[in-house]
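Justification of computing resources. Each target in the renewal requires a structure prediction run like the one illustrated here; the chain below, 473 residues long, is used simply to show the kind of job we budget for.
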Amino acid sequence: MRHLDSLKQNDNSSYSMKKPLFIATVLLTLAINLQADKPNIILVFIDDMGWGDFSCFGNQAASTPHVDGLAKEGIRFEQFYVNSPICSPSRTAISTGQYPQRWKITSYLAHRKMNTERGMAQWLDPKAPMLARSLKQAGYATGHFGKWHMGGQRDVSEAPYITEYGFDSSLTNFEGMGPKLLPLTLKPRQQKPGRIWDKAEVLGAGFRWMLRSEITSGFIDEAIPFMKRASENNQPFYVNLWPDDVHSPFWPPVEKWGNGKRELYLSVLQEMDRQLGRLFNFVREDPKLRKNTLILVCSDNGPEKGAGVAGPFKGFKTHLYEGGIRSSLVAWGPEIITRKNTVNRESVFSAIDLVPTLLDLAGAEHPQGVRFDGESLPDVLTAASTASRKKPIFFRRPPDRDSFYGIKDLPDLAVRHGKWKLLCEYDGSHPELYDMQTDHGETINVASNHPQTVKSLTRALISWHQSMPPDNG
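Resulting structure tokens:
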């Protein structure tokens, strides 16, 4: 009996010593399983591409089979908006979930003097509520690969590094701080490549030169190992892959050259799709990633005139007409999107809505003390609903774009709410009202027929405009 009591005491002592290790192992296993349930997120944000440029959105002049393949297995949205018709503010909105005017980034970031003259910040404040930072705090590996353009360009060399915004790793072009791929250019019959933006070397060490026609592959070469490492560590990842191929000047491979702006653009568009195919195939062919990855593809603003096309919509890049702010959004995720090969023509929402939506899909906490301008719409993004955001979507033109592409007096403000789209001047004058259900091309101004609608929307729009920090528009 004494022997048995002694043995029992020894066993309890042994268990007592092992108990903390056992509990730690169980907690680690639970943590890994919880992390594994979080969806990986890849955001492909294309520079200056028109709503109608993917062949799945109607382009018959060029083929984009890799993006089209995502659409066939996922969903494409026809009433998705970005929050500015020009790059830097559009990128700020999709990164923060807030109107870019809050951060005084209302046109493209350029030289220091020009930014000041337009009443703009020199870079995005790192205190902004970055999607990447919130996901990192939720256990995600975060990487940015491609164009940045939210600080660090031309002569603004003291801007924060991309990694100061919540990214573990980054590789960008000349419009950001940190490691860079800088573009070499090559034309048919040209023997030696040229350089554009060669002064980007002043923004710091850690750059290498690469043919612009291959540069999206360069970003993908960095993104894929980043995702592999995260996956092997059972860590969810958030990756920005932001190509700028279809932003002028256009440099397709010499063997795929074209004549004139439109042909060059189409050649670059198809080559970008081909290079993106390797990224998409990497995810699709890995059973683990295919099961738990969400890929989003859209453009940051409308097309340059004479290059891309905006489908049936009026206007171009820099315009508050639909062609400048409506973006072709494709979402793919076989285990996340509830219906395949779906077209959502009803849901009206925008880039600022993606931030709270993705945080909720990831089970990540919203940053404390932050009020998003975006609304969380996870059921819309996963094809379980065709609802729209409840609040209006407001827009303000870039301060340096009152006249562009042949239009001498562009509207200063715009709002989309329900079926109505209103554009006007800063003081509410010269209203243009369009019924987007019957006139998505903005061809018939019905303002005189609906004075109460004009009054209500104008009041809300001016109130929003006056609540935002001013620029020098």
